[in-house]
Amino acid sequence: MNRTRRAGHPAVRRDALPVLAVAAGLFAAALGMLAGAIGVAAARMARKVVTPTRREVDTEILALDVSAQTITLSRTADTSLPGRYGLFTTGSAPYLKLGTVLEETETSVKRKLLTHITHDAQLNAAASFSGWYFDRPEQLQLPFTPELIGSSIGPCPAWLFPAAEDCGDWVIQVHGRGTTRAEALRAVPLFRDLGYTSLLVSYRNDGEAPRSRAGTYTLGATEWRDVDAALAFARRHGARRIVLMGWSMGGAIALQVALNSSHRDLIAGIVLDSPVIDWGVVLRYQGSLLRVPRTVVGVALGALGSPWGASVAGTGERIPFERLDIVARAAELAHPILILHSDDDGFVPSDASHDLVVARPDLVEMEIFANARHTKLWNYDQTRWSGAITRWMRAKGLDGAHAAADS
Fold first, then answer.
1. Which of 3, 51, 163, 388 matches a 20 to 30 Å C-alpha distance to 188?
2. Cα dihedral sign for 349, 354, 360, 363?
C-alpha cells in the first residue's frame, strides 16, 4: 500500500540520521567555542579596564641632537601637537620637557628640548608622550608641604600649596586613571593667582595611595571616598569654600564626591578637564578603536556591572555603571560645572560632556576645544585654558583673590 507523504514534512532517510546528529553536535560545539571565545575576550577586556597599569609606550625616539638640544619622535596625533609637553623615557633621563615643533614629516616630528641633555645621555627608543609637563612639585618654585590624608584604607599622600593670602578658598585636584597627582601640577599656578590653596590628592590603587583588597579600580565608585576624606582634611584646616577639579577619570570621581559627600555643602563649583561622564560611552568608544567586537564589549560591561562578573574581573564587587552615568543622574546635580573637552579627544569622547550640557544647561557650561587631544588642553593652548577657567570662576563669584580685594 502506498503511503502519502504529508506536505511540508519531507521524508528523512534513516541512514542520514547519524550524519544529522553529528552535524548538530558540531554546530553546538562551534557555538560553544564561539561563546567561550567571546567570554575569554570579554574577561580580558574587563580586567584591563579595572587593572591599574603603568604608562603605555606610545611613541619612539628616532634621534637625539645634543648640540642643538632637539629630539625626534615617531609621529602620532599627539606628538605633532603644538605646545609644551612631557616625555617619559627609560635610560639616563627618565623624564624630559618638550617645547615647540621644529620640523615634521609624515613619519616623524622634531621638537625642541626644554630639559637640557648632556653628551653622555643614553635613552632607549620606547617612550610615552604626556601632557604632564611638570613631574615634581619643586618645579613650580612655590611653597608646598607633603601631607597624609587619612581615609578608610589608610593614609593617602597629598601635596598642599597654600594660597599667598589664606581666605578659606581651596581647590582639590583629582588626577586620572593610570596617572598620579603630578598630572595636576600645571593647574596650581592658575588657582594660586585666583587666591586658592591647592590640594593635590591620591586615591586607592593609583600607585601612591594604599592598595584596596582587590587592588583594582572601580572607576570612581569607591575612589571618591578617599577624595571625600580630602574634603574633611580641608575643612579641618580652614577651608570654607572648595572647588573640585577632576582630570579624565578624576572627573568621574569628582562628580561622585559632589553627589555623595557629607561635605558637599563646602563645594562651590566643579571644573572638569577631559572628563569621564558616562563609562559606557567611553568603553564602547575605546572598544571600537581597538576593533573589539561590540558583542565582546557588551559582555565585558555586563561582567563588570554584575555580581557574577566581579570574580572574573577581579574587582571583588560589581561596578555600578548606573550610578556612574552622570547624564542619567543630571537632575541630582547641585553645583555649577565647567567642562573643558576637545572634540577629538582620542581617548574619552566628548559626547557625554555635550549631553550633560543639554541635560543641565542651568548648571553646566562647556569650553570646546579642537585638536587638543586628551588632557592636553593646557599644553595645547595654555592662554585659552587659563582664560576659560578664570572667566568662569569670576562669573560664578569664585575668584578668591578678586573677592578678597573687594572685601
1. 51
2. positive
Strands of 236-278, DSSP E: 241-247, 267-273
**Lowest mean pLDDT across 108-112, 127-131, 309-313:** 309-313
Phi, psi for 12 (deg, rounded to 5): -115, 125
Q: Determine the Cα–Cα distance for residues 52 and 75; give it in Å rounded to an integer.
A: 27
Task: Please determine, for residue 187, whether its predicted confidence score (pLDDT) is greater than 80.
Answer: yes
**Torsions phi, psi for 362 (to 5 deg):** -75, -20
Query: What is the rounded distance in angstroms from the CA atom of residue 155 to the CA atom of residue 203?
Result: 9
* Count of CB atoms situated within 10 Å of the CB of 265: 10
Nearest to 183 by CA among 236, 125, 246: 246
Residue ranges per domain, the chain?
A: 59-130, 137-406
Contact 296, 41 (CB under 8 A): yes
pLDDT over 80 at 45, yes or no: no
Average predicted confidence (pLDDT) for the chain:
89
What distance in Å separates the CA atoms of residue 206 and residue 217, rounded to the nearest whole number?
8
CATH number for region 137-406: 3.40.50.1820
Which residue reads 619612539 in cell numbers?
60
Amino acid sitting at position 278? D
Position 204, amino acid: R
- In three-state secondary structure terms, 87 is strand
- Report which of 217, 186, 125, 251 is spatially closest to residue 382, judged by C-alpha positions: 186
Domain 59-130 sits in CATH 2.40.10 = yes
Contact 377, 406 (CB under 8 A): no
CB contact burial 152-189 (16+ within 10 A = b; e otherwise): ebeebbbbbbbbeeebbbbbbbbbbbbbbbbbbbbbbb
Q: Cell digits for 382?
A: 595654555
**107 half-sphere exposure, CB direction, 13 A CA radius:** 4
329 torsion bin: left (phi>0), alpha (psi -120 to 50), beta (else) = alpha
Q: What is the pLDDT of residue 24?
A: 52
- Name residue 142's beta-bridge partners: none
Pairing status of strand 85-91 against strand 108-113: unpaired
HEC readout, 292-323: CCHHHHHHHHHHHCCHHHHHHHCCCCCCCHHH
